[in-house]
## 1
Amino acid sequence: LTLTRLDSQPELVREPVELGAVVEKVAHMLRPLADAVGLELTPVTSARISAILRPDHPMANRGVLSMGDLDGAEVVMLDENSLIRAQVMAEFRRTGSVPKIRSSHEQIFCMLNAVKLGNFIGFLNSSDPYIEQHLHRMGLITRELSPSIEFQVGFISKCGRRLPRIAAALTEIAGRLEISDRSGGDWDGLGL
């Protein structure tokens, strides 16, 4: 998928965008409207939120970060409308941990720049291969969170309506791939 957007420079920029990230943002923004007009999410997969940091950050030597580890840590977040922010903040509240939020960002790449320049910790769905590649190019690393924080990604449709055949087929294939990944299998025999 390629989207055209107006960047901070006055030229048009074309760049690949991971569809799961777009679906996540749209689903979160539309949730109140979806409830009001009777829409539902058909989950396709789940996405895991990771901590993003520089390799020289004091917590970079830990393989997994608990919310207790992040109590008082300087963090940067996505904006208040972000599903990722909502879920991370809910976990902070649940554990009684209080981070020092230094900034909030509408744009993922602005947040990543703040992580890099300020040596802060950010939070993102790093299971997206495009994001993982970009993090590597920026010299940033990921750390799992404990407990893990996940959210559902899928298709939005009217309540009681069947998904189009192509969406139903994609949901079925994604489910088989997820089962195969969990069992350590490969794609052989999945009918792809």
## 2
Amino acid sequence: AIDRDGLPPVQPGQKFELWGLVYNLVDKIPLNPPLIKGELDVAEYYICRNYTDVVNRDYSVRQIAAHYPYFYGKMCWERNDDGCAYNWFSRAVQIGYDMEWLEANIGSLLARHKQYIPAEKYYQAAYRLNPYFPYALFGLGYLNYINKKFNEAERNLITALKNKPDYAEAYYNLGAVYLEAGNKYQARAALE
């Protein structure tokens, strides 16, 4: 089903999971009661009907509101509908313009399609927002590896691992960097 704005509807009180915690979208955004009448979903209201209001709100309100298009983007990604995913992730970035994880998502989507130059711009944006964000560092390290810049790839992947020691993909890519650079012993250590 599609609503009048061409967006999939969200059920009132719909729950979603974020970092292992379950949230109720309606309960998480503080409202002035006159803004919403009836059963209209809060995130749908902010994103579809009053975009400028949500963009000008504080970070915590925008973070919750950005999850509405983000989760639709993730559903599209999981269905391998990358055009749809890009559309929804772009909407999420418009609301969460200072949220590094949203920028890194679009970078990952573009890198998946070998669009490395625009992917790097999104990873760089995520890095500028948070230079310790492991997914931005991983993305930059991956792109450095693709471009055979092994020293930069190593530096980014090691920094990603310092910030997220259980990041298996970063260990794997670090091993690949070492192997490509001819360091068999370091490659083996990274892969163990």
